[in-house]
Amino acid sequence: MIPGTIRRACRRLRDPAVRLWKHFFGPALASIPGGALILTFDDDSVADWHETDRVLSPYHWKATFCVSNFEKLGNEERKKLLALQNKGHEIACHSATHLKAVDFVASHSISDYIATDITPAIAAMSEYGLTIYSFVYPHGARNQELDRALLKYFDILRGTVYGMKPIAEHKCFANGSRVVSGLGIDRHYGNELPYLLQVLQFAAANDKIAVFYGHRTHRDDSPELTTGHHTLETICRYAQKYGMRFLTLRELSRDKRH
Ligand SMILES: [Zn+2]
């Protein structure tokens, strides 16, 4: 047998075992019966998110709102974040000042990055009563060294992944690791709604957990970094119709405190 054939045979034997191992023993969920959806929204459009929650409540949806620049938010916005947390949504950390982590650590240490953009955000948000479990990289800029450092502070990290790739090969599904990637659903990313529904269909049929991300939410989706209510309602209706669960990022973790 030639080496390539041996390698392919080994891969075929090994892959199901790896999937099974991750399914039962990985540090985070890789699958869930019936499939699930994690909807995440980045930055600071708190008033819009709060309004969107009113619109999507009939679908019993659940989202993760990933907040940057918490200290610049007004009192009303902070209260709205607490209210969203109290309703079962997760509030995650998206850094104190939205630095691009990879660029910053190219000229500073990782400790400098953590002291500048991570611990101040966790402290400010926690002091206000928000319970922080997850972190979302600004601009999706991450590497393994940053992952290792930040997993000491958070249970789950989320980056980004792009494009309407063949769905079975897409990296927008939870994979048993504590680091996941989200697929953009804002108009800006050009991922069409029928494609997003196919991703959900694949998740439902294969017990996968799809991770999506957007930024501002609004009744129309005309600004680029916005996901409109029509898109969100269609996604939520589809997930509900096919019996998929809504999870938040922290619910991927197998940590006992969840
Ligand atoms: Zn951001």
CATH topology: TIM Barrel
Briefly, what CATH class? Alpha Beta
- Provide the gyration radius in Å: 19 Å
Largest sheet: 8 strands, parallel
Low-pLDDT sequence parts: none
Estimate the global geometry from the Cα principal axes: globular
Hetero groups bound? zinc ion
Put simply, the count of helices is 8
Distance between the termini: 49 Å
Assigned CATH superfamily: Glycoside hydrolase/deacetylase
What is the arithmetic mean of pLDDT? 91
Please provide the ordered H/E string of secondary-structure elements: HEHEHEHHEHEEHEEEHE
Tell me the helix content.
Answer: 40-55%
> What is the name of the CATH architecture?
Alpha-Beta Barrel
Outline the structure in words.
The chain has 258 residues and is an alpha/beta fold. It has one domain (28-252): TIM Barrel, CATH 3.20.20. The protein contains eight helices and ten strands. The chain has helices at 3-25, 46-56, 75-86, 101-107, 110-127, 144-150, 193-206, 229-241; strands spanning 36-43, 63-67, 90-93, 134-136, 156-161, 179-184, 209-214, 216-218, 226-228, 245-246. The strands form two sheets. Strands 1, 2, 3, 4, 5, 6, 7 and 10 form an eight-stranded parallel beta sheet that branches. Strand 4, helix 6 and strand 5 form a beta-alpha-beta unit. The longest helix is centred in the first third of the chain and has 23 residues, at 3-25. The model has no long low-confidence stretch (mean pLDDT 91). The structure holds zinc ion (ZN). Zinc ion (ZN) binds at residues 42-43, 68, 94, 98, 138. Residues 42-43, 68, 94, 98, 138 line the site of zinc ion (ZN).
